[in-house]
Specification:
globular, alpha/beta
């Protein structure tokens, strides 16, 4: 078939190297824009499937079952803006939403708080910098183990950091908040 559409922030179940009816599906958030004809996933090596997925070959059959989930800016068309809080690979649905906003020329403000173990574990840093040019996007990085010369936020996302990072224009029930990442 010609593919399918998804809402930015949603996920799909992926199956490779086996039948789509096997009990071996793996959930991954789309990281591509919902406006793109291509499906993009950003996958971190955490288990046997994610460690082996890099060995897929061009033309190899992969089954994509979806889209699923209601974690999407499209469910909030009247929001005045968004606060995205991402930890680690939890950045992937946020990137789908941010990229979709770019492609739709959405002018609503976006505040992204992105936490990671270290600077090398951050993903999409250069692209996020470029996206600031065409979007009303503010990015705050929080690094658990920062290098000695790090001038940004350190440690974990805290109540104090959130209090200081909430957009000035924030009005309860008009800005939507999305959170994705590991417990810390």
């Amino acid at each position: 078939h010609k593919g399918f559409k998804f809402e930015p922030g949603q996920f799909a179940w992926l199956t490779a190297w086996t039948s789509p009816f096997a009990d071996s599906e793996h959930p991954f958030s789309f990281s591509s824009s919902s406006e793109s004809e291509l499906l993009g996933f950003t996958i971190k090596e955490l288990g046997s499937f994610t460690q082996s997925i890099k060995h897929l070959e061009i033309g190899q059959v992969v089954y994509v079952d979806g889209p699923y989930g209601s974690f999407s800016i499209d469910r909030h068309p009247f929001a005045k803006g968004f606060l995205f809080i991402a930890g680690g690979i939890g950045i992937t649905p946020m990137m789908s939403m941010i990229r979709s906003m770019r492609d739709r020329k959405d002018t609503r403000p976006v505040q992204l708080i992105y936490a990671s173990k270290d600077v090398d574990s951050l993903t999409f840093v250069d692209e996020l910098q470029d996206l600031k040019i065409c979007l009303d996007l503010k990015v705050t990085y929080v690094i658990e183990n920062p290098p000695p010369n790090w001038e940004g936020e350190k440690g974990y996302i805290s109540r104090e950091l959130l209090k200081n990072s909430i957009p000035v224009q924030y009005i309860p029930n008009s800005f939507e908040i999305f959170i994705c990442g590991p417990e810390p």
